[in-house]
Write a structure and sequence with these properties.
With about 400 residues, the protein is of the alpha/beta class. Helix 9 (about 310-325) links the parallel strand 17 and strand 18. Strands 16-15-14-17-18-20-19 form a seven-stranded mixed beta sheet, sandwiched between helices. A six-stranded mixed beta sheet has the order 2-6-5-4-1-3. Helix 2 packs across helix 4 (about 135-150) and helix 8 runs parallel beside helix 9 (about 310-325). The chain has three domains: about 5-65, Archaeosine Trna-guanine Transglycosylase, Chain: A, domain 4 (Roll); about 75-185, RNA methyltransferase domain (HRMD) like (Transcription Regulator spoIIAA, 2-Layer Sandwich), CATH 3.30.750; about 205-395, Rossmann fold. The chain contains ten helices and 20 strands. The protein binds S-adenosyl-L-homocysteine (SAH). S-adenosyl-L-homocysteine binds next to helix 6 and helix 8.
Length: about 400
C-alpha cells in the first residue's frame, strides 16, 4: 500500500467528511505533514481514517478523491473516468450521430474534484483547477485512453488558463494535435477553438436550452444577447426564425458567431439578412435600440464570483431583465439565465420578479431550467449547482 502524507483534523471537525462533503477547509485541520499537490490521507483527532484526497495549503485544504483507503491510484482514476463515460453513454451522448461534444468529467459531480474534461469529437480538453489534480495528468490521460481507445485522437491540457501563473503550467497536447473539424450538437455544426476560446471553447452547458429555444423561435424575431460563439443564434435560425440578432461585447465572439452561422447554411427560400451581429455592450444595446423582439435570450457571464459580490450581481440581473422586458412584444418569450454559483435560484428569481414588477408586465414561468445531466451535481456537494434559468411568457 502506498505511503501517503497525513492530515489530522481538529477534534469534532469530522462531521462534514462523514457526510461525504468532498472539501476540507483549512480551519478544520490540526496538523498537515504535506506539500502542496500531495495525495494525503485524512484522519480524525482520535486516529480514525476518514478520506484520501489532494492537498493544497489554502482555504480548501483537501479535495477528497475517496472515502475509503486507496491502494491503487491508477485504478482509482481509471474507474472514475469509466463511470463518467458510462453516465454519458446512458444519456445517449457517446456514439451519437447528431451530438459529438459533451462534458465528460464535471469535477465534484463526477467524484474528481477540481477536474473538468470536455469531449469534442475525439479531442478531450482538460482543465485541472488545483496543483494536486494537475499532477495527476498522466493518470487522467491513461484513464481516457483505456475507455476510448482509438477514438481518443487528442488530449489538450488547458489547465494553465485556470491555475496560478507561479505554477508554470503551459498549455499543451498530451496526445495528438489540433484539429479544425467542427463539432456537432443536435445536428448543428460549430467550430470550437479550445486553444484560445473561453472555458474549454464552447458552452456545452446550454445544449438542452438551445434545443428548447427551437420550440419558440419559428417565425419569430429573436435577440440572442451574450452570444459568444452563437449557439442560440444558430438554433433559432435553423428553427425558422425570421430575424436573429446576436450581441456580444467581444469582437472575437462576434466573429465566432458569424463563422458558426455560416457553417449552418439555411434551407433555400429563407430571406437574406436573417442574421445580424452587433459588437456591443448588452446593457447599452438594450437601452438604446428601438426594436421590439418576440424572443430574447439573456445568458450573461457570472456577475458574481464570490459571496461579497452577490448583492451587486442580483442588482445587475434585475437591471438586465428589466431592459429585456422593455424590448419584448406582448406574447413574447424571455429565456433568462444566471451562471453565478453564489447567486441561488431564489435570489435570481427574486431579481427577475423585481424587474417584472417594475416593467408592469404580466409574466408566467413556463420552464425552470438548470444544468444538463452531463454536468451532474454530487448530492453531497450542493455547491456544484450553478446554472439557473427561467423561460417566461410575457404579456
Ligand atoms: N450564450 C453563450 C455563452 C455566453 S458566455 C453560448 O451559448 O455559447 C458570455 C459572453 O458574454 C461572452 O462571450 C462575453 O464576451 C460576453 N459579455 C460579457 N459581458 C458583456 C457585456 N456587458 N455585453 C456584451 N457581451 C458581454
Amino acid at each position: 500500500m502506498p505511503q501517503f502524507s497525513r492530515v489530522i483534523l481538529r477534534r469534532s471537525k469530522e462531521d462534514a467528511v462523514k457526510r461525504f462533503h468532498p472539501w476540507i477547509f483549512s480551519g478544520a485541520i490540526k496538523q498537515a505533514e504535506a506539500q502542496d499537490g500531495d495525495i494525503v490521507e485524512v484522519y480524525s483527532d482520535s486516529g480514525e481514517y476518514l478520506a484520501t484526497g489532494l492537498y493544497h495549503d489554502s482555504n480548501i485544504a483537501v479535495k477528497i478523491l475517496a472515502f475509503h483507503p486507496v491502494t491503487n491510484l491508477d485504478e482509482l482514476f481509471a474507474n472514475r473516468i469509466q463511470q463518467a463515460v458510462q453516465v454519458r453513454s446512458q444519456l445517449g451522448l457517446t456514439g451519437s450521430e447528431t451530438t459529438n461534444c459533451y462534458r465528460l468529467i464535471n469535477a465534484e459531480g463526477d467524484n474528481l474534484p477540481g477536474l473538468i474534461v470536455d469531449w469534442y469529437n475525439g479531442t478531450a480538453v482538460i482543465q485541472a483547477y488545483s496543483i494536486g489534480m494537475y499532477g495527476q495528468r498522466q493518470r487522467i490521460l491513461a484513464g481516457l485512453q483505456a475507455v476510448y481507445g482509438e477514438s481518443l485522437r487528442a488530449v489538450y491540457d488547458k489547465s494553465a488558463s485556470v491555475l496560478p501563473r507561479s505554477l508554470g503550467a503551459t498549455p499543451e497536447y498530451l496526445l495528438g494535435e489540433k484539429t479544425d473539424e467542427p463539432v456537432r450538437e443536435y445536428g448543428h455544426h460549430f467550430q470550437v477553438d479550445w486553444e484560445t476560446g473561453q472555458k474549454t471553447g464552447f458552452f456545452l452547458d446550454q445544449r438542452e436550452h438551445r434545443q428548447l429555444l427551437t420550440r419558440y423561435a419559428s417565425g419569430k424575431q429573436v435577440l440572442n444577447t451574450f452570444s459568444y460563439s452563437g449557439g442560440f443564434s444558430v438554433y433559432a435560425l435553423q428553427a425558422g426564425a425570421t430575424t436573429v440578432h446576436s450581441v456580444d461585447s467581444s469582437t472575437k465572439a462576434i466573429d465566432l458567431t458569424k463563422q458558426n452561422v455560416a457553417l449552418n447554411p439555411l434551407q433555400t427560400g429563407t430571406p437574406e439578412g436573417t442574421h445580424e451581429a452587433f459588437t456591443d455592450d448588452v446593457f447599452v444595446f438594450l437601452k438604446t435600440c428601438d426594436r421590439q423582439y418576440d424572443v430574447i435570450v439573456l445568458d450573461p457571464p457570472a456577475f458574481a464570483k464570490n459571496v461579497s459580490a452577490r448583492h451587486q450581481a442580483v442588482m445587475a440581473y434585475k437591471r438586465l431583465n428589466l431592459q429585456a422586458f422593455n424590448r419584448l412584444r406582448s406574447g413574447g418569450v424571455l429565456m433568462t439565465f444566471s451562471c453565478s454559483q453564489v447567486v441561488q435560484r431564489d435570489h435570481f428569481q427574486g431579481a427577475v420578479l423585481a424587474a417584472a414588477i417594475e416593467s408592469g408586465r404580466s409574466v408566467r414561468i413556463l420552464h425552470h431550467l438548470t444544468q444538463p445531466a452531463d454536468h451532474p451535481v454530487n448530492l453531497f456537494h450542493p455547491e456544484g449547482l450553478y446554472l439557473k434559468g427561467l423561460v417566461l411568457w410575457v404579456e
